[in-house]
Amino acid sequence: MPQDFDKAQHRLPKLRVEALSGLLFATFSDAAPSLEDYLGPEMVGLTRRTVGKKMTILGRYSQMMDNNWKLYAENTRDTYHPSLLHAFFATFKLNRLSAEGGVKQDDRNWHHCVFAKRQTDEHHAEYGSGKIRAMKTDFGLRDPSLIDQWMEFDDGITNFIQNFFPGFVLQQVLNSIGMRQLLPKGPGKCELVWTLVGFEDDDADQTYMRVKQSNLIGPAGFVSMEDGIIGNFVQRGIQGDLDQAAVIEMGGRGLGSAPTRATETSVRGFWHAYRHFMGV
Protein backbone atom coordinates (compact mmCIF):
# COMPACT_ATOMS: atom_id res chain seq x y z
CA MET A 1 0.00 0.00 0.00
CA PRO A 2 1.26 3.56 -0.66
CA GLN A 3 2.21 5.64 2.36
CA ASP A 4 -0.79 7.93 1.97
CA PHE A 5 -3.32 5.06 1.93
CA ASP A 6 -5.84 5.73 4.72
CA LYS A 7 -7.35 2.47 5.92
CA ALA A 8 -10.03 4.41 7.81
CA GLN A 9 -11.40 5.57 4.45
CA HIS A 10 -11.48 2.06 2.95
CA ARG A 11 -12.61 -0.19 5.76
CA LEU A 12 -15.32 -2.82 5.43
CA PRO A 13 -18.91 -1.72 6.00
CA LYS A 14 -19.79 -1.70 9.68
CA LEU A 15 -22.55 -4.00 10.89
CA ARG A 16 -25.13 -3.10 13.51
CA VAL A 17 -25.41 -6.09 15.82
CA GLU A 18 -28.07 -6.79 18.44
CA ALA A 19 -28.61 -9.79 20.69
CA LEU A 20 -31.86 -11.44 21.74
CA SER A 21 -31.63 -14.30 24.24
CA GLY A 22 -28.19 -15.24 22.99
CA LEU A 23 -29.12 -15.00 19.30
CA LEU A 24 -27.17 -12.42 17.29
CA PHE A 25 -28.79 -10.42 14.49
CA ALA A 26 -26.93 -8.00 12.23
CA THR A 27 -27.77 -5.44 9.56
CA PHE A 28 -25.82 -3.18 7.23
CA SER A 29 -28.60 -0.59 7.34
CA ASP A 30 -28.45 2.49 9.54
CA ALA A 31 -32.13 3.09 8.84
CA ALA A 32 -33.39 -0.29 10.05
CA PRO A 33 -35.39 -0.20 13.30
CA SER A 34 -34.08 -1.82 16.45
CA LEU A 35 -34.49 -5.59 16.59
CA GLU A 36 -37.19 -5.45 19.26
CA ASP A 37 -39.13 -2.80 17.33
CA TYR A 38 -38.87 -4.88 14.16
CA LEU A 39 -40.14 -8.04 15.84
CA GLY A 40 -42.65 -6.54 18.25
CA PRO A 41 -43.26 -7.52 21.88
CA GLU A 42 -45.21 -10.71 21.08
CA MET A 43 -42.39 -12.24 19.03
CA VAL A 44 -39.69 -11.07 21.44
CA GLY A 45 -41.54 -12.68 24.34
CA LEU A 46 -41.95 -15.97 22.47
CA THR A 47 -38.25 -16.05 21.62
CA ARG A 48 -37.29 -15.50 25.23
CA ARG A 49 -39.70 -18.26 26.19
CA THR A 50 -37.91 -20.77 23.92
CA VAL A 51 -34.26 -19.82 24.39
CA GLY A 52 -34.34 -18.05 27.72
CA LYS A 53 -31.24 -19.78 29.11
CA LYS A 54 -27.60 -19.84 28.06
CA MET A 55 -27.28 -22.14 25.07
CA THR A 56 -24.74 -24.70 23.97
CA ILE A 57 -24.39 -25.74 20.32
CA LEU A 58 -25.02 -29.46 19.77
CA GLY A 59 -24.53 -29.56 16.01
CA ARG A 60 -24.88 -27.85 12.65
CA TYR A 61 -25.71 -29.03 9.17
CA SER A 62 -27.15 -27.60 5.96
CA GLN A 63 -29.13 -28.77 2.96
CA MET A 64 -29.58 -27.47 -0.56
CA MET A 65 -33.10 -27.36 -1.97
CA ASP A 66 -34.00 -27.07 -5.64
CA ASN A 67 -36.70 -24.46 -5.24
CA ASN A 68 -37.14 -20.75 -4.75
CA TRP A 69 -36.60 -19.68 -1.14
CA LYS A 70 -40.15 -18.34 -0.85
CA LEU A 71 -41.58 -21.84 -1.26
CA TYR A 72 -39.78 -22.99 1.87
CA ALA A 73 -40.81 -19.78 3.66
CA GLU A 74 -44.41 -20.74 2.87
CA ASN A 75 -43.80 -24.31 4.03
CA THR A 76 -42.80 -23.25 7.54
CA ARG A 77 -45.86 -21.02 7.75
CA ASP A 78 -48.36 -23.56 6.42
CA THR A 79 -50.25 -24.88 9.43
CA TYR A 80 -52.15 -27.65 7.60
CA HIS A 81 -49.45 -29.85 6.17
CA PRO A 82 -47.57 -31.13 9.27
CA SER A 83 -50.40 -33.36 10.47
CA LEU A 84 -51.75 -34.13 6.99
CA LEU A 85 -48.52 -34.77 5.07
CA HIS A 86 -46.04 -36.06 7.64
CA ALA A 87 -47.06 -39.60 8.53
CA PHE A 88 -44.78 -39.71 11.56
CA PHE A 89 -46.51 -36.75 13.20
CA ALA A 90 -50.02 -38.14 12.75
CA THR A 91 -49.26 -41.79 13.45
CA PHE A 92 -47.44 -41.20 16.73
CA LYS A 93 -49.73 -38.37 17.84
CA LEU A 94 -46.99 -35.73 17.93
CA ASN A 95 -48.88 -33.14 15.91
CA ARG A 96 -52.53 -33.34 14.84
CA LEU A 97 -54.98 -30.63 13.86
CA SER A 98 -57.31 -32.06 16.52
CA ALA A 99 -54.76 -31.18 19.22
CA GLU A 100 -54.87 -27.90 21.11
CA GLY A 101 -52.87 -25.19 19.37
CA GLY A 102 -53.00 -21.95 17.47
CA VAL A 103 -51.20 -19.19 15.57
CA LYS A 104 -49.74 -15.95 16.92
CA GLN A 105 -48.62 -13.01 14.81
CA ASP A 106 -47.05 -9.65 15.56
CA ASP A 107 -49.11 -6.46 15.23
CA ARG A 108 -48.05 -5.99 11.57
CA ASN A 109 -48.47 -9.70 10.71
CA TRP A 110 -44.91 -9.96 9.40
CA HIS A 111 -43.74 -12.63 11.82
CA HIS A 112 -45.55 -15.58 13.31
CA CYS A 113 -45.44 -18.71 15.40
CA VAL A 114 -47.56 -21.85 15.22
CA PHE A 115 -47.78 -24.06 18.28
CA ALA A 116 -49.44 -27.28 19.39
CA LYS A 117 -49.72 -29.48 22.44
CA ARG A 118 -49.13 -33.18 22.09
CA GLN A 119 -52.20 -35.25 21.14
CA THR A 120 -53.15 -37.71 23.88
CA ASP A 121 -56.50 -39.06 22.61
CA GLU A 122 -55.67 -42.34 20.84
CA HIS A 123 -59.24 -42.81 19.63
CA HIS A 124 -60.04 -39.44 18.09
CA ALA A 125 -62.74 -40.12 15.48
CA GLU A 126 -61.16 -38.45 12.43
CA TYR A 127 -57.80 -40.14 12.84
CA GLY A 128 -59.03 -43.46 14.16
CA SER A 129 -61.44 -43.89 11.24
CA GLY A 130 -58.55 -44.30 8.80
CA LYS A 131 -59.73 -41.40 6.62
CA ILE A 132 -56.60 -39.33 7.23
CA ARG A 133 -53.97 -40.30 4.66
CA ALA A 134 -51.07 -39.52 6.99
CA MET A 135 -52.34 -41.91 9.68
CA LYS A 136 -50.50 -45.26 9.34
CA THR A 137 -51.89 -47.97 11.59
CA ASP A 138 -49.22 -50.48 10.54
CA PHE A 139 -46.29 -48.28 11.61
CA GLY A 140 -44.41 -48.83 14.85
CA LEU A 141 -41.19 -47.79 16.56
CA ARG A 142 -38.57 -50.36 17.43
CA ASP A 143 -37.19 -47.75 19.84
CA PRO A 144 -40.18 -45.89 21.37
CA SER A 145 -37.82 -43.78 23.49
CA LEU A 146 -37.27 -41.65 20.38
CA ILE A 147 -40.48 -39.78 21.20
CA ASP A 148 -40.10 -39.74 24.96
CA GLN A 149 -39.85 -36.25 26.37
CA TRP A 150 -39.85 -34.18 29.49
CA MET A 151 -42.11 -31.13 29.61
CA GLU A 152 -39.71 -28.40 28.51
CA PHE A 153 -41.99 -25.46 29.31
CA ASP A 154 -44.86 -24.96 31.72
CA ASP A 155 -47.22 -23.90 28.90
CA GLY A 156 -47.51 -27.55 27.76
CA ILE A 157 -46.44 -26.76 24.18
CA THR A 158 -44.52 -29.59 22.52
CA ASN A 159 -44.37 -28.33 18.90
CA PHE A 160 -43.44 -24.72 18.24
CA ILE A 161 -42.27 -23.07 15.01
CA GLN A 162 -41.52 -19.33 15.04
CA ASN A 163 -40.68 -17.34 11.90
CA PHE A 164 -39.03 -13.95 11.62
CA PHE A 165 -39.56 -12.42 8.18
CA PRO A 166 -37.97 -13.19 5.84
CA GLY A 167 -35.98 -16.36 6.56
CA PHE A 168 -35.26 -17.16 10.22
CA VAL A 169 -36.93 -20.05 12.07
CA LEU A 170 -36.78 -20.95 15.76
CA GLN A 171 -38.05 -24.45 16.50
CA GLN A 172 -39.07 -26.68 19.38
CA VAL A 173 -40.10 -30.21 18.38
CA LEU A 174 -40.54 -32.17 21.61
CA ASN A 175 -37.13 -31.47 23.20
CA SER A 176 -35.23 -30.71 19.99
CA ILE A 177 -34.52 -26.99 19.92
CA GLY A 178 -32.75 -25.14 17.15
CA MET A 179 -32.60 -22.44 14.53
CA ARG A 180 -32.87 -22.49 10.75
CA GLN A 181 -31.49 -19.81 8.41
CA LEU A 182 -32.92 -19.71 4.89
CA LEU A 183 -30.41 -18.44 2.31
CA PRO A 184 -31.49 -17.70 -1.30
CA LYS A 185 -29.09 -19.08 -3.92
CA GLY A 186 -30.85 -17.90 -7.07
CA PRO A 187 -34.39 -18.13 -8.50
CA GLY A 188 -34.48 -21.93 -8.30
CA LYS A 189 -32.26 -22.87 -5.38
CA CYS A 190 -31.83 -22.11 -1.70
CA GLU A 191 -29.82 -23.37 1.27
CA LEU A 192 -31.20 -24.15 4.72
CA VAL A 193 -28.67 -23.96 7.56
CA TRP A 194 -29.61 -25.71 10.80
CA THR A 195 -28.15 -25.09 14.26
CA LEU A 196 -29.26 -27.42 17.07
CA VAL A 197 -28.86 -26.29 20.66
CA GLY A 198 -29.18 -27.35 24.27
CA PHE A 199 -28.73 -25.41 27.48
CA GLU A 200 -25.82 -25.19 29.89
CA ASP A 201 -27.89 -26.59 32.76
CA ASP A 202 -28.95 -29.72 30.80
CA ASP A 203 -27.85 -32.98 32.37
CA ALA A 204 -26.33 -35.82 30.33
CA ASP A 205 -29.69 -37.56 29.76
CA GLN A 206 -31.31 -34.35 28.50
CA THR A 207 -28.45 -33.66 26.10
CA TYR A 208 -28.66 -37.24 24.82
CA MET A 209 -32.40 -36.87 24.21
CA ARG A 210 -31.98 -33.58 22.35
CA VAL A 211 -29.40 -35.14 20.04
CA LYS A 212 -31.54 -38.23 19.54
CA GLN A 213 -34.63 -36.22 18.69
CA SER A 214 -32.70 -34.15 16.17
CA ASN A 215 -33.33 -37.18 13.92
CA LEU A 216 -37.02 -36.25 13.78
CA ILE A 217 -36.52 -33.22 11.58
CA GLY A 218 -34.08 -31.97 8.95
CA PRO A 219 -33.19 -33.23 5.46
CA ALA A 220 -33.35 -36.93 6.49
CA GLY A 221 -35.65 -36.59 9.47
CA PHE A 222 -38.24 -39.24 10.28
CA VAL A 223 -40.89 -36.50 10.35
CA SER A 224 -39.92 -33.98 7.71
CA MET A 225 -37.79 -35.56 4.99
CA GLU A 226 -40.70 -34.76 2.64
CA ASP A 227 -40.07 -31.04 3.08
CA GLY A 228 -36.77 -31.35 1.25
CA ILE A 229 -38.43 -32.34 -2.03
CA ILE A 230 -41.95 -30.95 -1.97
CA GLY A 231 -40.68 -27.45 -2.86
CA ASN A 232 -39.10 -28.82 -6.02
CA PHE A 233 -42.39 -30.47 -7.01
CA VAL A 234 -44.09 -27.09 -6.72
CA GLN A 235 -41.19 -25.31 -8.45
CA ARG A 236 -41.50 -27.59 -11.49
CA GLY A 237 -45.26 -27.21 -11.54
CA ILE A 238 -45.27 -23.42 -11.58
CA GLN A 239 -42.65 -23.30 -14.35
CA GLY A 240 -45.07 -24.91 -16.77
CA ASP A 241 -46.41 -21.62 -18.10
CA LEU A 242 -44.57 -18.49 -17.03
CA ASP A 243 -47.20 -16.27 -18.69
CA GLN A 244 -50.01 -17.49 -16.44
CA ALA A 245 -50.86 -16.70 -12.83
CA ALA A 246 -53.27 -18.12 -10.30
CA VAL A 247 -54.41 -16.95 -6.88
CA ILE A 248 -56.16 -19.19 -4.35
CA GLU A 249 -57.65 -17.21 -1.47
CA MET A 250 -58.04 -20.07 0.96
CA GLY A 251 -60.17 -19.02 3.90
CA GLY A 252 -60.47 -15.40 2.84
CA ARG A 253 -58.06 -12.49 3.08
CA GLY A 254 -57.74 -11.81 6.79
CA LEU A 255 -54.55 -11.56 8.84
CA GLY A 256 -53.73 -11.93 12.50
CA SER A 257 -53.50 -14.46 15.31
CA ALA A 258 -55.95 -17.36 15.51
CA PRO A 259 -56.99 -19.81 18.26
CA THR A 260 -56.66 -22.70 15.79
CA ARG A 261 -54.15 -24.03 13.27
CA ALA A 262 -56.88 -24.45 10.64
CA THR A 263 -56.03 -21.07 9.17
CA GLU A 264 -53.96 -19.49 6.37
CA THR A 265 -53.15 -16.25 8.19
CA SER A 266 -49.44 -17.12 8.56
CA VAL A 267 -48.93 -17.62 4.81
CA ARG A 268 -50.88 -14.47 4.03
CA GLY A 269 -48.81 -12.61 6.62
CA PHE A 270 -45.60 -13.60 4.81
CA TRP A 271 -46.86 -12.18 1.52
CA HIS A 272 -48.20 -9.12 3.31
CA ALA A 273 -44.64 -8.44 4.54
CA TYR A 274 -43.09 -9.32 1.16
CA ARG A 275 -45.30 -6.83 -0.67
CA HIS A 276 -44.50 -4.16 1.91
CA PHE A 277 -40.73 -4.51 1.55
CA MET A 278 -40.77 -5.01 -2.22
CA GLY A 279 -43.16 -2.11 -2.82
CA VAL A 280 -45.70 -4.15 -4.78
Reported CATH architecture: Alpha-Beta Complex
* Radius of gyration based on Cα positions: 20 Å
Corresponding CATH superfamily: Naphthalene 1,2-dioxygenase Alpha Subunit, Chain A, domain 1
Largest sheet: 7 strands, antiparallel
CATH topology: Naphthalene 1,2-dioxygenase Alpha Subunit, Chain A, domain 1
Total of DSSP H or I helical runs spanning 4+ residues: 8
Low-confidence parts:
none
Return the domain count: 1
Beta-strand proportion: 15-25%
Give a written overview of the molecule.
The protein has 280 residues and is of the alpha+beta class. The protein is built from 8 helices and 9 strands. It has helices at residues 35-50, 69-77, 81-85, 87-91, 125-128, 204-213, 227-238, 265-278; strands at residues 16-20, 23-27, 55-65, 101-105, 112-117, 157-164, 168-173, 176-184, 190-199. The longest helix has 16 residues, at 35-50. The chain has a 7-stranded antiparallel β-sheet, with helices on both faces. Strands 1-2 form a two-stranded antiparallel ribbon.
List keywords for this structure.
seven-stranded antiparallel β-sheet, globular, Naphthalene 1,2-dioxygenase Alpha Subunit, Chain A, domain 1, 27% helix, alpha+beta, 280 residues
